[in-house]
Amino acid sequence: MLNRRQLLRRGAAAGLLVAAPAGLIVGGRPGSAEAATAAFTVPLAVPRPLRPARRAGRDLYRLVTQEGEAAILPGARTRIRGFGGTLAPLIVAHRDRPVVVELGNRLAEPFALHLHGGHVPVHSDGHPKDQIEPGGRRTYCYPNAQRAMTLWMHDHTHHAHAENIYRGLAATYLLTDRFEEQLPLPKGQYDVVLQLRDAKFDENNALVYDMHRPEDRPTILVNARPRPYFEVAARKYRLRLVNTANERGFFLRLSDGTQAGAELVQIAADGGLLPAPAPTGALALWPGERNEVVVDFSRYPVGTELVLENLAAFEGETPEVMRFDVVRTAPDPSSVPAALRPAPDLGTPAVRRDFHLAFDPASGQHLINGKPFDISRVDIRPRLNVTEVWTIRNSDTLGIPHSLHPHLEQFRVLSRDGRPPAPGEAGLKDTITVMAGQSAEIALRFTDYTGPYMYHCHMLGHQMMGMMGQMEIVR
User: Fold this and answer.
1) Which CATH architecture has domain 4-43+183-329?
2) Per residue in 2-25, pLDDT tens?
């Protein structure tokens, strides 16, 4: 169990994600040994989409969860858990074309596949009651009847999920549609997934997992490579940022040698395109979240190096996440439209609910409305097609951030502490992080599917320690 000092240290560091002004490096030491030995020594691995085993009105993927060895650190092999024994795979799907995943579990632990952000029937959501035991199999069906967005796939067993994800079981799932494809945004090789997370390795290059010390994971991985470099052309790129870390939050800034840094034009959040582009100098990316930005490297001459930094690095860490090297020129027909995709009208709210999130020092548990998770208890029963407003209050007295991720539906952020959401939260989301003493209001409406679904904090250690609830969607 975490002691008070650990909790205070973690809460203070995480709080800097929203408090740090642009240009401030919190706790990082660029001259540290870790920075000298690990930063920018390996190229970025750009994932290629997996090929379906069969295409016949739907795309069929046959996957297995298993242990294997991967080249993460230079010159070394590390034992991991992955889909087919590999790290950071990618599935590309198309709206209204279903995907079927036949999944076999070859791990010694149970596994339940969850498509994070997916609008899917209950039997395919990865409920902990539906976990696949070692040696078992299960079929998941994803209708893809939702707008284009960046999603990801991960474990959702009740007790093994945090370690399974930490050891590598996280895949990116890109859902496209005709509306988005017709926009002049960067495409093809200039549309790149960046899956971010942290890790700790021992002297034998093995992953070290300690649920109670998330601040002691000093190696930042991008697409399973430690602080890599990426050679880019002098033109615009679409970067899809996916935070697959257990508990690490990032406050990202692209340093170009100026005080302001490079401009990041945010075009999408968890639930796809924003109503309009949101230029920013830095942006937060919490566990489970996805943010997409366009960066115009044509502003820099060939030979320029730009460093993506985490302004909320823990004490003693280097802030570098990865480096972009401008190595060539290239034609660029892409552009960022002034208008992207309107957020949907979710209707007039008919139900209001309050969710208080807090750590309880007496029990050592993280609670929602004073209760730890109980898989036999149903906490709320939302009705189909009824718009609800949820007020999420972080009541923590130790300064710890918490988040909320409801399954099945995307939501709209209505306010934070009574103020309108920032432009980067003006579209759809499915995960929202709230700092201690603060609150947020979201609107959501459950549609199409009934049955038991989860809602929980996406700080996976908090979820493991009780911060999860169960809802039953009813007609």
Assistant:
1) Sandwich (2.60)
2) 443 454 444 444 444 443 333 333
pLDDT of residue 31: 35
Label each residue of the chain as H, E or C: CCCHHHHHHHHHHHHHHHHCCCCCCCCCCCCCHHHHHHCCCCECCCCCECCCCEECCCEEEEEEEEEEEECCCCCCCEEEEEECCECCCEEEEECCCCEEEEEEECCCCCECEEEECCCCCHHHCCCHHHCECCCCEEEEEECCCCCCEEEEEEECCCCCHHHHHHCCCEEEEEEECHHHHCCCCCCHHHEEEEEEEEECECCCCCECCCCCCCCCCCEEEECCEECCEEEEEECEEEEEEEECCCCCCEEEEEECCCCCCCCEEEEEECCEEEEEEEEECCEEECCCCEEEEEEEHHHCCCCCEEEEEECCCCCCCCCEEEEEEEEEECCCCCCCCCCCCCCCCCCCCCEEEEEEEEEECCCCEEEECCECCCCCCCCECCECCCEEEEEEEECCCCCCCEEEEECCCCEEEEEECCECCCHHHCCEECCEEECCCCEEEEEEECCCCCEEEEEECCCHHHHHCCCEEEEEEEC
Superfamily of domain 54-180: Cupredoxins -  blue copper proteins (2.60.40.420)
Which pLDDT does position 38 carry in this prediction?
Answer: 65
Q: Please say whether the dihedral angle defined by the alpha carbons of residues 245, 267, 16 and 368, taken in this order, is positive or negative.
A: negative
CATH class of 351-473: mainly beta
Residue 37 confidence (pLDDT) above 80: no
Q: Average the pLDDT over 215-221 and give the result.
A: 95
pTM over 0.85: yes
For 241-252, write each residue's pLDDT tens digit.
999 999 999 999
Give start-end residues of each CATH 2.60.40.420 domain in the chain: 4-43+183-329, 54-180, 351-473
38-54 pLDDT, tens digit each: 689 999 999 999 999 99
